[in-house]
Structures are given as C-alpha cells and as structure tokens.
Write a structure and sequence with these properties.
2 copies of one chain form a homodimer. Chain A is an alpha/beta fold. Chain A has one domain: TIM Barrel (Alpha-Beta Barrel), CATH 3.20.20.210. Chain A is about 45% helix and about 10% strand. Chain A has 15 helices and 11 strands. Chain A has helices at about 10-15, 40-45, 50-55, 55-70, 85-90, 110-115, 125-140, 150-160, 170-175, 180-200, 220-235, 260, 280-290, 310-320, 350-370; strands spanning about 75, 95, 100-105, 145-150, 205-210, 240, 245, 250, 275, 295-300, 335-340. In chain A, β2 and β3 (about 100-105) form a beta hairpin. In chain A, α2 (about 40-45) runs antiparallel to α4, α7 (about 125-140) packs parallel to α10 and α14 packs parallel to α15. Chains A and B meet through α9, α11 and α14 of A and α9, α11 and α14 of B.
Chain lengths: ~375, ~375
C-alpha cells in the first residue's frame, strides 16, 4: 500500500471520469511525456534506451512530470509501455531505434503457448516503484493514471513479435487455432488485472486499458477475442483506494462502432470512461450510450500541426460536440478532453500550449454562460 | 461508345447491386487479379513493371481474366490503379518494388495547387482501351466493373506523395489551408466523374469509387473533405448504358460509423451499393439504412489464411449476418459478397476456391430453404 495520501489539490479529472460536476473540462494527452519534448529526449539520451528509461523509477518520474511543468494538465500518466506484462513473461521486449516494439521470443505454436504463464509481479516491481516515486513527486498536484495494454493488444505483439500492417499471424491463429489464442488471452487477462491492481496498490488513482488493436478485428471476432477479455480485466479491478473510487478507462482505437457494447454500465462492473478516437462525434456518442459512462477524447492529433489559432478552434469544436455536461433531466455526462491517439513526436510544443489554454478557457466560459 | 453489347449471360452481380432477386449471392474480390496468383506474377514479369502492366491493354485484359479462369466469380474488375487520374495530371506515378505508389511531383504548396487542372482524358486512353478489350474478351460472361480513387483518397497521395502512417502532410493542409485542399478536391471530383463516365462509355457496366483513406479523417472533416466530394462524383455519373442501369459502388474503408450519411438514397443521386469493411456487421448495417441501398462485403481477408473448412464457415457467417435478401414486407435488400479489403498477396489460391464454393453453395441453399 502507498503511504498516506497527500490531499489531491486538483481532482477535476477524477470527477469528470465519474460524471460529477466540474468547473471546466479536464485534459491530459496520450503520450504527453514523449519525444516531442526536448527535455524528454535529453532524459532518454541519459537513460540510453527506451527500456532503460522505463525501468528506472527516477528517470520515469522525471519524464512523467515534464509535461506538467510546462502546462496545467489535469492528470499525469505513468511513464511506461503497454507491453511490460509480456516482457515480464520472458518474451524479451526491446525497441530498436526508430522502430516499434519487438519481442525476441514470439508465441506462435502450441509449445510456446503451453509455456506461457501469469508472470511473477516481482518482475514488474520497477513499475510499482515508479508509481510510488511519481506519486511522491506529484505531491497531490493532479491524479496519476496507471495503464496496460488489453489482453488482445498484448496478444497481437506476442504472436506477431512486432507491429504489423495486417496482423496476419495473430489473425491466422485466431481463425485456425482459436483454442491457442483463447489460452493466451486468458493468461493475459489474469496478468493484466493483477498488474493494474498492483499499480493501484502502489498509488495509481485511475487506470486505463489500451486496446490499441481491437479495431483491426471483424465484428464477431472483436466481441469474442478482444471485448470479452477486456471486460474480464475490468471486472477484476479494485475500484476504490485511499477512500476514493479509482476510475477505469477503456480505449479501443477504431472501436467507435462498438461503443454500445464497450460501454457496459460501471455499476455492472464495466469501465467508468470510454476513450474514443476522432472518427466518432462525441455528441452522437453520448446519445448512443445515454451518458451511462463518461467519454474521453477525441481531437485528431494531426490538428496540432496547424497554427495555434486553428488548434484552439478545433479544440473548441470538440468541446462543443460533447455539449454541456449537465443534461436537461439533471443528470451529468462526463468529458475528459484528450487526443484520439498518442501525440506525434513531430508536434510543436507551443501548439500544445494553445490547446491547453483553449480547452480550459472555452470549457470554463461555456459553463459560466449556462 | 462501345460496340453493340454481347448479351450478358450472368447478371447476378448487377441484379444484387440493384436489390433485385437473385438465385444466389454474387461475389467478386477486391484485387482479385493480383500477386497471390502465379499467372499474374508471370504476366507482370513480362510487362516489366506495374505501370507497364496497367498501361498495356493486352496485358491488362490478360490479368483481368485470370481469376475468372480459375473460379466462377460473378464480376470482373478492370485491372488498373486508383491513382491513374493524378498520374494523368502530370504528377508522375510509379511503384517501387515492394513499396506502394509514389508521385514524383507532390502537390504541397499554393503554386503546385494553382498548376493543377482536370487532365485531358486522352492521356487515360490506355484505360478506356483496356475496358473495350476486356469487354470483348469477357464476351458477356460477367459484367465489368470500372473504378477510381475518391477525390479525397487521390488528394492523400497527391499531397503526401506516397502512402503514410498518419497522413500528416495532407491533414496539415486540411486544417491550416482548407482553401488549397478544397481546390484540389474540386478538380479531383470533376476529373474522377469524367474519367468514370468515359469508362462507362467504353463499356464498364458498374463503377466503384474507392475512398480508401476516408476512415483516417475526424468526423466533421470526413463530411467536409471526403463525403461531399464523393457525392459530387456520384451525382455526375451516367447511370445507364446499353439499356441497363450502371450501378455505382462507394467503399469507404473504416467508414462503418458514417454508413447512414454515405447511404444517400440512389433515387436522390446517391450510390446503389455501399462497400463495408469487416468491422461492421452486415445485418445491423442493413437495419441502420433500412435496405435503402445494397451492401458489398465484408469478409476479413486474413480469414483466407485459415484452413479451407474455416474459410467456408466464416463465409457462411458473413452470408448469415446479412440474412435473407427478401424482407417480410416484400422489399429486397441486396448483398454482393466481397472481402472487406483487397486480397493479400500471400493468400493461398486454393483457399479462394473454398470461399467461392461456400458463398455460391450456401447462398443458393439458403434461398431454396426459405
């Protein structure tokens, strides 16, 4: 368990996740601690490699706080990777320069699947140490979000051994040997749930499950091989810590078409917040789920390449598409502003300043106007 | 105009496009004449390059007919590329070995946009010659589909100069200089409409607009920069030739969320058929649009890597998801079976045999059973 918590000075993010009234719309950015920041690149150079950075709690703390030093973001997110769990299973995660993740030992046949097991959480101690260290450094400034890849998204990389254009290897397993894939997913779901709960024990005040590749699946396959296991994770999560609810966010990239299915009511054990990419209009999404859960998103990250005035206008358009959180019937929707995908490494940091100001300013003015 | 048409012996595809009763569900496969066929690779080797193949009507005819020699597919599709129009604008299309398309002269600034013009269709004569030659070779066996990329999809390649992971350059133009992009799209829409009408004049019996990259756009941007211009193309199309309606198919990869908007009634000048990728369930799609248009799709092409028995089962599942074309109220839906994306070059051809047999056999049995 974490040390007695310092009082949280800004709980706007947590309140929006739970559809409680807030003075403005909180925002944070996926991959907010990342390569678009010169100070991040400097720390990474000192760490030697991405994994050198992620596995060292001091470095992880330093980079997690960097974007918060620049802008009044409403949440911090643990600096780590979505693939730490399969790395702890012994698959050998690495990041070659300029490339995505790679596993030295992909899981492709019956024997490799038989060898898989839920990893000893002691192997992920560096993550929990980082959570504790970041909480201390944050000192109650904003809440800290923990995270993991979803069981399906982990399986994509575990079977392919790397990213893919078409996920042919893992989908071939899905169609030809669903029994093998179900075993991988079952182990992943147990491991991810235990891992997120350990992050919560260490001090994570919200958790997010990234189903980055749910959107590559056919409709029926998504339900059977992605959603089912994401739900299994969410249902096993601790939902309270330090006397507060720990919101759970589920983000399925390309999953807008399945919003009704993903948005299982939180009261029934589902997520509190659903992340959406930019292809789905937030206002129509709210109507489809009748504000049963909060929504997170969904500015196209490429908007940040446009001039600051355009960034501000597009940010306002996203806020306006969600509309007033308070409904005519007195209930509340919840909106956490974010991008619809991680921020690009080529983003000019000063455009982020325009974004933060527009989101906070416009949402505050809109609430005051009504 | 084409020569007097030979009577069409198999019009199942055309009838399904128009939601007329058929004895079975017709099928064809996007990229059915392609690298997964050894005979295609042999012809391509003789032609020297992809463009050498596409610009020679004899070669184009040869490869267009190759898949039909193997299997009783219900339509032929012109062998060509979605990017012939910008090539005719002088942008210099090429295909490096193992890579996607590339333009020597991308359109990225005000001066380049100012130079753009609707190309002289004489520069695309090789395409119309190929259409005439293929129609002759088909001799009424099945209908021939002509096609082009959508205005937005052409613009993606014209501005980026090649494929992209994030379409950052064209999206930056979209947000920062929408005036430039609108000019490109307006020229593209005029050019694509004229090009497709010339294909129809040469003998194309249906036409398809590929909006391959509509799905990368934010909701509002899709409506403004993709759908609006696709509609402009469709509204300008000749819809009758040789005494028959020429159906128009619109396929937006990743566009399932916008189905209601894309499915403008054909009577109002919209497409007759909407193509869907595998993320959307056909049965639910039908309900959403109340069978106002026919649907084309939507097997995940990676299913073709599974054993033939699985391919057959998944094909039946797609047919069953659409359900009976005839509705209780006596009206008909229309279903053209296809993949949800082009067939992979790594597909074993014998798995395609299993697919064709399953689609024809199962759909015929289902109709007889009801």
């Amino acid at each position: 368990m974490s040390e007695p918590a310092t009082a949280l000075r800004n709980d706007t993010f947590l309140r929006a996740c739970l559809r409680e009234p807030t003075a403005y719309t909180p925002l944070w950015l996926m991959r907010q601690a990342g390569r678009y920041l010169p100070e991040y690149n400097a720390t990474r150079a000192r760490a030697g490699s991405f994994m050198g950075l992620a596995t060292n709690p001091d470095f992880a703390t330093e980079v997690t706080l960097q974007p918060l030093e620049r802008w009044p973001l409403d949440a911090a997110i643990l600096f780590s990777d979505i693939l730490t769990v399969p790395d702890a299973m012994g698959l050998g995660l690495s990041f070659a320069a300029g490339e995505g993740p790679r596993f030295a030992h992909p899981v492709r046949d019956e024997a490799a699947v038989a060898r898989l097991a839920v990893p000893d959480l002691a192997r992920l101690r560096y993550v929990f140490d980082a959570v504790r260290s970041i909480r201390k450094a944050l000192a109650g400034r904003v809440p800290l979000i923990g995270f993991s890849g979803s069981p399906w998204t982990l399986a994509c990389y575990m079977v392919e051994g790397a990213g893919s254009d078409d996920y042919r290897t893992v989908k071939t397993m899905l169609y030809a040997r669903p029994d093998l894939l179900h075993r991988i997913l079952d182990i992943n779901a147990q491991a991810v749930a235990a891992y997120l709960n350990a992050q919560i024990d260490a001090g994570a005040q919200a958790v997010m499950v990234f189903d980055s590749w749910g959107g590559v699946l056919a409709d029926a396959a998504f339900r059977t091989f992605s959603l089912r296991y994401t739900r299994a994770v969410v249902r096993q999560l601790k939902r309270e810590a330090e006397g507060r609810r720990v919101p759970c966010i589920v983000f399925t990239k390309g999953g807008g078409g399945w919003l009704e299915e993903i948005a299982e009511p939180a009261e029934g054990g589902g997520a509190d917040v659903i992340g959406l990419d930019w292809t789905t209009d937030l206002g129509r999404a709210r109507k489809r789920i009748d504000d049963r859960v909060a929504l997170q998103g969904n500015l196209d990250p490429t908007v940040l390449f446009a001039p600051p005035a355009v960034v501000a206008a597009e940010a306002r358009a996203v806020l306006d598409s969600f509309g007033a959180a308070k409904r005519p019937d007195g209930r509340h929707g919840g909106h956490v502003f974010n991008l619809g995908h991680g921020i690009s490494q080529f983003t000019p940091p000063e455009h982020v300043a325009a974004l933060v100001e527009a989101v906070h300013g416009h949402s505050r003015r809109s609430r005051n106007a009504t």
